[in-house]
Amino acid sequence: MSKTTGIPVSTLRIWETRYGAFSPVKTPGKQRLYGEHDMSKALLLKQLSQANHAISAIAPLPLAQLRQMCSQSHKAQSKDAEMGQAVSLAVVGLSLANRMESQKFALSLMQNHIHVSDVWLDLATASSAELLNPPQVLLIRVNSLNAQVHAAIQALARKHQFPQTIVLYHFATEAVLQAMKFSGLIVRREPISDAELAEVLQSVLFVDTVRAQEFGTKGSVISSRKYSEATLSRVAGISTNVLCECPRHVAELISQLASFEEYSQDCLNNKAEDAHLHAYLTSISGSARALFENALEKIAELEGIDLRDGTP
């Protein structure tokens, strides 16, 4: 644990024996075995002790309270110093949260900073949680992806309106991956290096800044596609029945933008190189696609066109 947290072994021993911070399992050979919970607590105690909290006062506190104190400390430091841009995270998976808060991962972020504001053990726990100030990014680690997991992730992202969701996985079918990309999720297969994951997070920061500059929508969510290719083709085909060609042109633009959005998302998911560029292109095309979908709704309302799937 010392290597991962950057805390000297002697310090960990004092925190354990003098202040009761941890209760590791010991092998017959007296070797200490620390769990993920111990790792999380060590990382949080380190942050708080560096912020001048007395270890004697904070060592007995539960994990949730320590994380809340770290969140408050982080906000105070951000006001008092120029810390660069910070990415705020809600994380599903204790081991993943520990990775995000480790000294090793912090080195991969260079001038940026990670602030883990909320941690849930699994999707079921996360789905019942309430957040007053949702973070910028929802970061999830799951072993296998299937339709049910995809639905649960989408529901969680919609509930808290996370601007971006990143999913790390080990196993998934191509159909599920395509569906997740279609819905605007960033998916990366494990194992993924700290440098690659940091690049993805930095691209999220970059996109958030660009959208604020170009669209005035910092922190907002790009909605998933509203209309299937079948619906868009149908609308384009009936454009001769109305007074102008606007329905056809708008439907074709939406289809083209959606295709480019999916292509850019594939580039972002498949390689770390130029992640900022591909994240930027995904954001711009997705924002434009959503605007044209709103325009199509207004045209459909005016011309009496039914946009529901399966309508003849």
Describe the structure.
- The chain is α/β, with parallel strands linked by helices and 312 residues long.
- The chain folds into three domains: 1-80, Multidrug-efflux Transporter Regulator, Chain: A, Domain 2 (Orthogonal Bundle), CATH 1.10.1660.10; 84-221, 3-Layer(aba) Sandwich (Rossmann fold), CATH 3.40.50; 229-303.
- The chain has helices at 2-5, 9-17, 36-50, 55-58, 63-80, 94-100, 103-108, 123-127, 147-160, 174-182, 194-214, 229-237, 246-270, 275-303; strands spanning 25-26, 32-33, 86-92, 113-120, 137-141, 144-145, 164-169, 171-172, 186-189.
- Strands 4-3-5-7-9 form a five-stranded parallel β-sheet, sandwiched between helices.
- The termini are far apart.
What are the SSEs and their pairings?
Layout: H1 2-5, H2 9-17, E1 25-26, E2 32-33, H3 36-50, H4 55-58, H5 63-80, E3 86-92, H6 94-100, H7 103-108, E4 113-120, H8 123-127, E5 137-141, E6 144-145, H9 147-160, E7 164-169, E8 171-172, H10 174-182, E9 186-189, H11 194-214, H12 229-237, H13 246-270, H14 275-303
Parallel strand pairs: 3-4, 3-5, 5-7, 6-8, 7-9
Antiparallel strand pairs: 1-2
Helix pairs in contact: 3-5, 3-6, 11-14, 12-13, 13-14
CA(first)-CA(last) distance: 63 Å
Domains counted in the coordinates: how many? 3
| Total DSSP E strands | 9
Query: SSE order, as H and E?
Result: HHEEHHHEHHEHEEHEEHEHHHH
Count up the helices: 14
Average pLDDT figure: 80
- From the helix content, strand content and strand pairing, which structural class follows? alpha/beta
CATH H-level superfamily of the largest domain: Response regulator
CATH-defined topology of the largest domain = Rossmann fold
> What's the CATH first level of the largest domain?
Alpha Beta
The main sheet comes to: 5 strands, parallel
Instruction: Specify the overall morphology.
Output: elongated
**Which blocks of ≥5 consecutive residues have pLDDT under 50?**
80-84
Beta-strand proportion: 5-15%
The strands making up the biggest β-sheet line up spatially as 4-3-5-7-9
Alpha carbon gyration radius? 23 Å
CATH architecture annotation of the largest domain = 3-Layer(aba) Sandwich
Instruction: Specify the helix fraction band.
Output: 55-70%
